[in-house]
Amino acid sequence: MYMNLMQECFSAHHLALGVQANSPLRRRLNHDIAKLVESGLVEYWFHDSITKSIEVWQLTTPTTPDT
Questions:
Q1: 3-state secondary structure (DSSP) of residue 34
Q2: First to last CA, the chain
């Protein structure tokens, strides 16, 4: 599996998925997760969630009139 490190990171995210020791699912899960990362979907989902969070924040933050 290849990992690309960014020079800047404004937030860290960690994810774990537990399976039983010697689980037959482990190999398949590792393969499928690697495919999601390699395809760019994980990065897309991350950026999409940040964009949506900013939009919600802008809609819910009261504005003050200029004086």
A1: helix
A2: 56
Radius of gyration of the chain (CA): 18
10-residue averages of pLDDT along the chain (67 residues): 58 73 90 91 87 85 71
Q: List the one residue out of 29, 28, 2 whose CA is nearest residue 17.
A: 29
Structure tokens at 21: 């020791």
What CA–CA distances, in Å, run from 28 to 15, 16, 23, 49?
17, 15, 10, 27
Provide the pLDDT for residue 45: 87
Which residue has tokens 């933050």? 61
| pTM attached to this predicted model | 0.56
